[in-house]
Write a structure and sequence with these properties.
With about 575 residues, this protein is α+β, with helices and mostly antiparallel strands. It contains 14 helices and 29 strands. About 55% of the residues are buried.
């Protein structure tokens, strides 16, 4: 019998030999048509994305023919991958459109050892790429922490790891060239493949394109000779966090920080490359990305919902404290070999930089799976990611501390997940990248099953969110966040107009645009309506934008008073009734 250990909301560990089912495909069809969804099974506005037709090319030429067909028939085009972890509806097409999936265009991986590059089909998964590169004695330097993504998706949305060293932690800053399939005239077969490299004036537009310039068909990424990583987790109180993060990033190449505000605790990841002949065969198998028992996942979710409905903050705080102690005990999934035996944990770059073991389990059992899989009543959460200029991030941390200190327990909900993950990405020449060295703050928190259901401490997370994006001018991660985070986003990028000019050049008819992607790229707010603030579709300005029938009214922020948040008011007439 397997031994199951409950760790957290999003951090559940199954010890034993339980087999698991990998995630379901994002496109599902039946006799009535097809529906596209992300890996969490729901989009930001909860509306399903109906797809008229889907094409699965297996070669670059088939990809070109799919775009040509759409162009000839004057159809819109959107591209989905085999993973679909984008939270905004960037890949949802408008009516009169075709969806191209790169799920089967995922076999080409050509490593050039002499020139230290690798060229891959855009549908290739990150883990397959890493393993192939490591087999050749080389290493991919930058990658996101979650390996369940394709190279095309990673590059087009600006995905990243953590580093201010060298070329930095963003994958697109290690790209040296890519192929785009774009519409063309009849004489060129209605679509053509163009090669873009660092000498091309379109290069900085194409590196983060959100799928709006064309279809990425191949990506060439720079590599380095193989190396290992040495990781130590240093647990400290958070007294000096806002003064110490810069020094940490300067001293350690792949450093990050996990901040648990309700516990007054920080975990500094002292993470550096070491020579390939260093002793150690460690692995990073992050707890939150391991397979989890379906029963345990459902139990955790039910417990969390119970805390929410009872407004039981203390229950969440008990869980947060227990989780942190357990993470410390097992190094949050780091293993020296078969288990964690002590720091430092040293292992090859390809086994230490990214993880996602719940993706790779056999499909012969349904005993366990990724904890957020929509086929079970497991985890369901928001993910907010704010990217600050380094000069402004200390002020944000200070304000969050002020809000936390008003009532420490209000922050236990975020610590039930992974606290605040703080990472570092370097200034980039990409038009939709970061124009200066930046600090990325990422946090997850409870999301209700039904859109109109209020959340415990909802006002706290709305204030933190608005504080980040509007007081401190943080940029949203293009593949994450609720819609309000993108309000006015175009004003935050000095090269935004250059990106639009490149889009007009490559896609003059707007083939790759949709209403959904325009909401993100153009930062257009939706019309305010009853309860629109409950899931971040708007910022409240009237009580009706919250949920007055359940006692949630529109109120000013407590620290950032310009914020407008939905706060529970137990004395309101509606809540008393």
């Amino acid at each position: 019998m397997d031994w199951l250990v409950w760790i957290s909301h999003g951090l559940l560990l199954t010890i034993g030999s339980t087999l698991a089912m990998p995630p379901q495909p994002p496109v599902r069809c039946n006799e009535t048509g097809c529906i596209l969804s992300n890996s969490y099974g729901v989009w930001g506005d909860r509306a399903e994305c109906h797809i008229p037709s889907v094409i699965y090319p297996t070669t670059e030429e088939e990809l070109r023919l799919a775009v040509a067909m759409a162009n000839q028939k004057k159809l819109k085009v959107k591209v989905a991958t085999g993973f679909a972890h984008t939270i905004p509806k960037l890949t949802c097409p408008s009516e009169n459109a075709v969806l191209i999936s790169t799920a089967k265009y995922n076999s080409g991986i050509k490593v050039d050892v002499e020139n230290l590059t690798v060229t891959v089909d855009s549908g290739v998964g990150l883990r397959d790429l890493i393993d192939k590169v490591e087999e050749a004695g080389l290493s991919l330097v930058a990658a996101p922490y979650w390996e369940g993504a394709s190279l095309g998706g990673i590059v087009s949305t600006g995905s990243h790891g953590s580093s201010w060293w060298g070329k930095g932690g963003s994958v697109h800053d290690h790209v040296v060239g890519l192929n785009l399939v774009v519409p063309a005239g009849a004489s060129q077969g209605f679509a053509k493949i163009i090669r873009i490299d660092r000498r091309d004036p379109l290069f900085n537009a194409a590196r983060i394109s959100l799928g709006l310039l064309g279809v990425i068909s191949k990506v060439t990424v720079s590599l380095e000779h193989g190396f290992k990583r040495s990781i130590t987790h240093s647990y400290q109180d958070d007294t000096h966090l806002e003064y110490e993060f810069r020094d940490l990033a300067a001293k350690h190449e792949f450093a990050d920080i996990t901040w648990y505000p309700s516990q007054n605790n920080t975990v500094y990841r002292l993470d550096d490359r070491v020579p390939l002949n260093s002793s150690g065969d460690g692995i990073n198998d992050f707890l939150g990305f391991q397979s989890n028992s379906i029963v345990v996942s459902a139990t955790v979710r039910a417990t969390e919902k119970g805390f929410e409905s009872a407004k039981n903050v203390k229950g969440k705080c008990t869980v947060a404290s227990t989780e942190l102690a357990y993470k410390k005990l097992v190094a949050n999934g780091l293993r020296n070999n078969l288990m964690f035996t002590g720091y430092p944990v040293v292992g090859r770059q390809g086994r230490m930089q990214t993880s996602g073991s719940c993706l790779h389990s056999p499909s012969t059992s349904i005993l366990s799976m990724c904890a957020w899989d929509p086929r079970i009543k497991g985890l369901f959460f928001y993910e907010t990611t704010a990217i600050f200029p380094a000069s402004k991030s200390a002020g944000f941390i200070t304000d969050v501390k002020k809000l936390r200190d008003l009532n420490l327990e209000n922050f236990c909900g975020v610590d039930n997940y992974n606290g605040f993950l703080i990472r570092f990405i370097k200034a980039s020449g990409a038009y939709l990248g970061q124009s200066e060295d930046s600090v990325v703050v990422d946090f997850n928190y409870y999301r209700a099953d039904e859109p109109l259901t209020p959340r415990l401490n909802q006002d706290v997370w709305e204030e933190v969110e608005q504080m980040a994006f509007f007081k401190y001018g943080a940029k949203p991660h293009w593949a994450k966040n609720r819609n309000l985070a993108f309000l006015g986003v175009q004003q935050k990028y000095p090269n935004y107009s250059k990106f639009l000019a490149a889009k007009k050049q490559l896609d003059p008819q707007g083939m790759f645009s949709s209403d959904w992607s325009d909401e993100i790229l153009l930062g257009k707010g939706t019309a305010k309506s009853d309860s629109c603030a409950m899931e971040g579709q708007c910022i409240c300005s009237e009580d009706r934008h919250c949920n007055p029938s359940n006692g949630y009214l529109c109120k000013p922020g407590l620290v950032y008073t310009e914020a407008r948040v939905c706060r529970y008011s137990p004395s309101s007439p509606s809540s008393i009734a």
